[in-house]
Amino acid sequence: MAYVSVPKDLSTVKTKVVFNLTKRQLICFSAALAVGLPVFFLTKDSTGTSSSTLMMIFTMLPLFMLAIYEKHGQPLEVILKHYIEVRFLKPKQRPYKTNNFYALLIRQDQLDKEVKHIVEGRKSISSKANKGRTTEN
């Protein structure tokens, strides 16, 4: 009796469309065919069959890699995007920076003292102005 292993994690199972290929693979293989065949037919008369076949293979290879290669559930273009970001776009050394909460508290305390000083100064000015007035009954 034949046994078929069933994966326990069904999130890795991909739906097949035609010829046991996924939609992504069909699109990439079609694009490779659309790019590779014209290269072969345009170059076979001038360079020969074997060299034009090699040129066709090398032009189709990147599209085949986009269709087939996958690592840790990520397709090749995502892996290349991450590699380019890390290698060329992001800075090499990232300094460790922290948000000092205590400095924020000290600054807030200083602002509270300034506001209190301004309010007390206004109270003393208004009280001095009221002392100069006499009440007449």
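Above is the first protein from milestone M3; the second protein from the same milestone is given next.
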Amino acid sequence: MPRRNHPDHGRARDARGGAQSELGAATGWARAESGADGDWLVRTVPGAQATKVYRCPGCDHEIRPGTPHVVVWPADETGSVADRRHWHRACWDARARRRPHRRW
């Protein structure tokens, strides 16, 4: 039997070598997190890939280019760009201890 040069044609595999679930395949670069405020998909953005200015909903300060941070969106929304929010890692981790800052 000849060797396949492109096994699975780029399909994502889980840690056990099986095909990922539909959710995992669609968000292979994000991890799921659950909290009192719901289920979220979280992606870490290294500083080298942070090229725009964003406003953190946790502290209402800017996330400047070059600053590592996380992008978060509800787990039940599949691919909705409008629901993504950029947070400082510390602000995301502290969200259960404080409410998001409201801009007047």
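Note on the second protein: The helical segments are 22-26, 89-93.
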